[in-house]
Amino acid sequence: MSGIGGLALGLCRKLPASNPLGQYQVRFAHKRIRWRRSRLIKATIAMRDKITPFELPLRVLDLDAEGSPYTRDFDDRDSAHQHQKWRSVDSDLEAVKERLGRVPDEAAAALKRREMTRAAPYHPWRINECDALSAALTGLERPAGLSEDPDAEQRYLVLAQVAHHNAARSSAMEATSTVVLFMLRELQRHPRPETLDRMSYPDLNSQIQRASSLLELRRLLFPAISTVTQSNEGLAACGAEIAVAVRRLDGLSKEESPKSLVLLNNVHLNLESRGITNLPRPLCLLGLEAAIACSELEAARKYIEIGLRLHHFSSADDEVTHVVASCLKRMLDNNLGARPGFHQRSPPHRNPQSELFRLLTGWSLAQSRAQPSIRDIIWNSDSYDHARKVYFCLLWQLGAVRTAGHEMESAGSSAIQRLRLLDSNAVDPELQLISKTFSYTFPKLASQLKDEPLGAYLDDVAYDLAKINRMEPTVVAGGTLDHAESNIPR
């Protein structure tokens, strides 16, 4: 083509400058160049069609070949050998082809997932400012010197879920800077609409029902709970939905109960910061259960105080009595006074058994007046009979013999007789075990109280508290009915 272009340039140069027909000659030269080029293309195509390809037969290097020096034809044996040799490569190639075949479907699903996430202003995995700030402050890298960091793993999993639901590329998860840049771009391109700054309770309840994990529930509640209106009826319904969702997601298990407690504490603080002091009863009962499940007795006392102040425990229906009895039963089974709690190691100034005694009775050595306690819930109602059984068993486990005796005296012989004769053939296996444990504990407690002079109530409490703070009593397992005599000194 360079030669043809040069020819055209030469033709143009040969034209005299004073020739009036020069422009027509230039056009004729370009037309002739195009004609020659088309002839050349047609000739090339014709020559290509006339060429008959000649395929050389496959030959194999073989020093013992017959008929020709050192070579022979490629046969079935060589084909089987080559197939065996490249079998792994062929399988990898097939896997790659299959993976490439799924790429369009995955890309379409990712785009659809991203559109759904962006369309909902309060979607659990919608990127918000807290995600970008958390990624910038914590990052993806593990701290130096720590081979295993569960918190770092949890942060990375959260960021991975955010990237998955927002259709981020894999390159965005390579470093902290790329993650933060991706989140900032998403916030700039797709901000939350300002017209949707309020969320109704029905919409929030429907989102809570669709939550599939505690993490989704937490990401949904914290941005949305600050926008709902101050309606007691709506807040009560929302609290019931939150309690149902936490129980549905197994939030009261040993592993998940600390997360549930943190979730409920944050919801309570958020409501208090907005001037809403009426914590719904389902959330109060759930907070008490979560605090007992992870051995946080101070948190349990806080929810007991809230429930007593708001009269959540005064209407002793089946739900309330079951929650209180199950909390006491969990304390009896797990022996919270002697087990490491939420922080795995109690501080030197804390005595877990003294804290458990204060949670049960409301009395401590540091304060001269009673605090809100479990006794305030169960003492003035006959609906808490099973909870009162566990209450006496726990006092005996802690070695508070005098306090237990005084409580039995204040309960009256008729009430104690009713507790002893209470039907133990209930359908609930927990109630059966509570009745059997009380039937085992009561004779032991009565035998220890036979020679004990019972004085004033405050003297009994002071005596038991001094003993609990002075030594660690031997604890008898609540579910073991064939245990020997107690080693608690009198």
Secondary-structure-derived class: mainly alpha
Determine the number of helices (DSSP H or I, runs of at least 4 residues): 21
Q: What's the Cα radius of gyration?
A: 40 Å
Strand order within the widest beta sheet: 1-2
The profile of the biggest β sheet is: 2 strands, antiparallel
Spans of at least 5 consecutive residues whose pLDDT stays below 50 are 6-11, 336-349, 471-490
State the share of residues found in helices, binned by percent. Answer: 55-70%
Mean pLDDT across all amino acids? 75
Overall outline: elongated
Order of helices and strands: HHEEHHHHHHHHHHHHHHHHHHH
Instruction: Tell me the strand percentage band.
Output: under 5%
How many beta strands in the DSSP annotation?
A: 2
CA(first)-CA(last) distance: 114 Å
How would you describe what is shown here?
- The protein has helices at 2-14, 22-50, 76-85, 87-119, 129-138, 150-165, 176-189, 201-209, 214-224, 232-248, 257-273, 281-293, 297-309, 318-334, 352-361, 374-378, 385-398, 401-411, 413-420, 429-449, 457-470, and strands at residues 59-61, 71-73.
- The protein is mainly α and 490 residues long.
- Among the domains are: 2-49; 106-193, no CATH class; 349-490, no CATH class.
- The chain has a two-stranded antiparallel ribbon with strand order 1-2.
- α11 (257-273) packs antiparallel against α12 (281-293) and α18 packs antiparallel against α21 (457-470).
- The longest helix is centred in the N-terminal third of the chain and has 33 residues, at 87-119.
- The radius of gyration is 40 Å and the shape is elongated.
